[in-house]
């Protein structure tokens, strides 16, 4: 919403029962940013939002905000994938050890493979790719 006084912005956010995200670039947005669940300060106006924002995006306009949002969504997918890898590996390893197909020592020795898989998955799924100065 736009064209609101700072107090009105904060009141709208405080009344909202959903998770709120406030994006602003100036002193008149600081109160609403502080009242929101997630406050995003965008460079360009007065940098007062830096004091109250949870996230500060450099660069003019909303382009930096959208890049941060897309990167966060991508990061969430990487984390979920890595959790699935870990759960499958641990269930498989523990089941094989409990059933006697492998010894607990062997299961413990191959555990670093799970860690390496998660690390490689994280590297391949790099969420915040460099896009120059955009």
Topology of helices and strands:
Layout lengths: L5 H10 L5 E4 L5 H6 L2 E5 L6 H4 L2 E3 L5 H36 L5 H6 L1 H14 L10
Explained architecture:
The protein has 134 residues and is mainly alpha-helical. The chain is 57% helix and 9% strand. It has six helices and three strands, in the order H-E-H-E-H-E-H-H-H. Strands 1-2-3 form a three-stranded parallel beta sheet. Helix 4 runs antiparallel to helix 6. The longest helix is centred in the middle third of the chain and has 36 residues. The chain is elongated, with a radius of gyration of 22 Å. The model has no long low-confidence stretch (mean pLDDT 83).
DSSP helix fraction: 55-70%
Q: What is the β-strand count?
A: 3
Task: Give me the secondary-structure category.
Answer: mainly alpha
**SS element count, helices:** 6
* Low-confidence regions: none
Strand fraction band?
Answer: 5-15%
What is the CA-based Rg, rounded? 22 Å
Overall spatial form: elongated
Integer average pLDDT:
83
Strand order of the largest sheet: 1-2-3
Kindly, what is the distance between the CA atoms of the first and last residues, rounded to a whole number of angstroms? 26 Å
Order of helices and strands: HEHEHEHHH
Can you summarize the main beta sheet? 3 strands, parallel
Task: List the keywords.
elongated; three-stranded parallel β-sheet; single chain; 57% helix; mainly alpha; 134 residues
Outline of the structure:
The protein has 134 residues and is mostly helical.
């Amino acid at each position: 919403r736009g064209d609101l006084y700072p107090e009105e912005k904060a009141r709208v956010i405080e009344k909202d029962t959903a998770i709120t995200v406030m994006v602003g670039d100036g002193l008149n947005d600081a109160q609403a940013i502080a009242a929101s669940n997630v406050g995003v300060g965008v460079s360009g106006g007065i940098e007062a939002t830096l004091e109250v924002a949870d996230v500060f995006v450099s660069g003019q306009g909303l382009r930096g905000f959208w890049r941060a949002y897309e990167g966060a969504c991508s990061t969430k997918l990487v984390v979920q994938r890595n959790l699935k890898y870990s759960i499958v590996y641990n269930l498989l390893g523990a089941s094989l050890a409990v059933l006697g197909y492998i010894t607990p020592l062997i299961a413990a020795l191959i555990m670093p493979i799970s860690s390496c898989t998660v690390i490689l998955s994280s590297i391949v799924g790099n969420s915040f790719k460099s896009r120059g100065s955009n």
